[in-house]
Write a structure and sequence with these properties.
CATH architecture: Orthogonal Bundle
GO cellular component, one term: bacterial nucleoid
GO biological process, one term: negative regulation of division septum assembly
Shape: elongated
Largest sheet: none
Keywords: Cell cycle, Cell division, Cytoplasm, DNA-binding
CATH superfamily: Tetracycline Repressor, domain 2
Order of helices and strands: HHHHHHHHH
Strand content: under 5%
CATH topology: Tetracycline Repressor, domain 2
Number of helices: 9
Distance between the termini: 67 Å
Subcellular location: Cytoplasm, Nucleoid
Helix content: over 70%
Number of domains: 1
Protein name: Nucleoid occlusion factor SlmA
Radius of gyration: 19 Å
């Protein structure tokens, strides 16, 4: 007797929310509209998530788990600072590009009018990302015997700001201006500027 796989309703809800954040850019997502998108009642939504804020937190958990686990893999697999930084920045840009609705959460655009703790979670995520970049930059002196002419913390902040700016452009353009557009040339410029020692 074949068993049919039961749908994971929580995943369905989060995927529908991410899709609606992409297709309804600039509009607030109501639970009624989300329930209709998933094909369930609003009461069914609340059986899986006690509030809309918890749904957003589910997406933030996904963002954090995905990015931080992949950054850890990059750090484990690659020992050269330049390559680590390039791959981390590229990861952030590709992740944003492949997940436009979720990119609206990363930029804070989708969180306008939502609970303040959601903005705080995104801020905390960016702090973790900046710390990862700073750690990679600081290890350059130990691993490669080379140091930067500027403070590693300042440099990490600048590199993350570049990624954030490209994400903002992506959202502001209605997802037309891709974060990875021009990236190879831009990275080459950063490389020449930062790593030419």
């Amino acid at each position: 007797m074949a068993t049919t796989k039961r749908p994971n309703r929580k995943e369905d809800i989060l995927q529908a929310l991410a899709a609606m954040l992409q297709s309804h850019a600039g509009q607030r997502i109501t639970t009624a509209a989300l329930a209709a998108q998933v094909g369930v009642s609003e009461a069914a939504l609340y059986r899986h998530f006690p509030s809309k804020a918890r749904m957003f937190e589910g997406l933030i958990d996904f963002i954090e788990d995905t990015l931080l686990s992949r950054i850890n893999a990059i750090v484990q697999e690659h020992k050269q600072t330049e390559q680590r930084i390039e791959l981390i920045m590229q990861l952030l840009l590709i992740f944003a590009e492949r997940n436009p609705g979720i990119c609206r959460i990363l930029t804070g655009d989708a969180l306008q009018g939502e609970q303040e703790r959601l903005q705080e979670r995104i801020s905390a995520l960016y702090e973790k990302l900046e710390t990862q970049l700073k750690q990679c930059l600081r290890e350059r002196k130990l691993r490669e015997g080379k140091s930067f002419s500027v403070d590693e913390g300042d440099l990490a902040n600048l590199l993350l700001g570049i990624c954030e700016g490209k994400m903002q452009q992506f959202v502001r353009s209605g997802f037309a201006r891709l974060p990875t557009a021009q990236w190879p040339n831009q990275w080459a410029l950063l490389q020449r500027t930062l790593f030419a020692v």
